[in-house]
Amino acid sequence: xxxxxxxxxxxxxxxxxxxxxxxxxxxxxxxxxxxxxxxxxxxxxxxxxxxxxxxxxxxxxxxxxxxxxxxxxxxxxxxxxxxxxxxxxxxxxxxxxxxxxxxxxxxxxxxxxxxxxxxxxxxxxxxxxxxxxxxxxxxxxxxxxxxxxxxxxxxxxxxxxxxxxxxxxxxxxxxxxxxxxxxxxxxxxxxxxxxxxxxxxxxxxxxxxxxxxxxxxxxxxxxxxxxxxxxxxxxxxxxxxxxxxxxxxxxxxxxxxxxxxxxxxxxxxxxxxxxxxxxxxxxxxxxxxxxxxxxxxxxxxxxxxxxxxxxxxxxxxxxxxxxxxxxxxxxxxxxxxxxxxxxxxxxxxxxxxxxxxxxxxxxxxxxxxxxxxxxxxxxxxxxxxxxxxxxxxxxxxxxxxxxxxxxxxxxxxxxxxxxxxxxxxxxxxxxxxxxxxxxxxxxxxxxxxxxxxxxxxxxxxxxxxxxxxxxxxxxxxxxxxxxx
Length: 484
Known about the structure:
By secondary structure, this protein is of the alpha+beta class. 35% of the residues lie in helices and 21% in strands. The chain has 13 helices and 22 strands. The strands form 5 sheets. It has a 6-stranded mixed beta sheet with strand order 3-2-1-4-6-5, sandwiched between helices. The chain has a 5-stranded antiparallel beta sheet with strand order 7-8-11-10-9. Strands 12-16-19-20-21 form a 5-stranded antiparallel beta sheet, with no helix packed on it.
């Protein structure tokens, strides 16, 4: 059955529900109970103790310092004593962020809970959100114009590293679990912010839910209907996420800090999948999804060739060559680095290295040994010249350098063609061209040598300066993964 349990459940049914949720925990596992001092967290501890008496429960109270919370801390400590649990109190400093004080306090609270879990080697953290909280969460998400992910509300189980955050009360009614806490004589306090008329959650609870009861028909159980909506939406969202994850693997490729997708293939996907692929494209560059709204994703999807859009979080997205490319704003080019022969130069910006050795000579084992690699297929089209290895017929005294492309660079071996034009012809995204390694002659060459001073000799995957096929001498180069 989807959604909250029907109203009017006896206490044994409440205990049974909690037991079913906590079946995932091994016998005797250390388990934290997040306790605010209020009735919901008191009921959580009580029902968890009755459902799984084998667990080693630790009541944890986090003090945010935003108001006088001595009574809350005292109630949480009394709860631990009443249920014969260990008690831990943690004080945190809340720094307001762009999403407001409430979000900052929640972030600080969960950080503290994770730290306690790590130190206690706890398997899980239990939190006391109820079916009523879930219904309110769905309403608040609706107010923000959410998608299916937001309609799914809170998950019963969420994993953060090795710690599971579990909500055993998510299908139980607030009034019923509070009645169980009161019947057990547990001491609780009421958070004064719950009565604040400016709190959006309180308005959802006292104004919107009662109004919706008159629209729902039947028995007017708005909490039951909204929690059922959450479960159905979450199942749909999970399926879409799985399908989108497969498309991300198929389409998204990285070149250093730049991530690219073929624009045509993304736009050919169903809209729900295309948006998720672009979301992950952007999230991989900006370091997460937080603050990434649907409007920004849609701006990227409709970007025309030659267009550019700036996305909050420091991401620049461009469209050219049939690709959508996302890069950190202000991304620089590869710096110039001398390439010793024999020797290896690391290119940490793109996770690669260029290895050089004299052709035909015995060389020590390469510390970066591995198969030569081409730039990912999403950035260098199939059929491009140059490969991941090159043999250069370099005259004695010519030093080599690995650098970025420069304006006016010719194509290696085709001095009358510009390298920039060649990259355009191949459809290489403009955002990453400054990160393609160019191996060039640094000095010592001149007229008659076949190598112009400063000229590109090899651009992996793009072009290479021609060398005699039977040349036994020369410099052999390989592009290899940079193992750290």
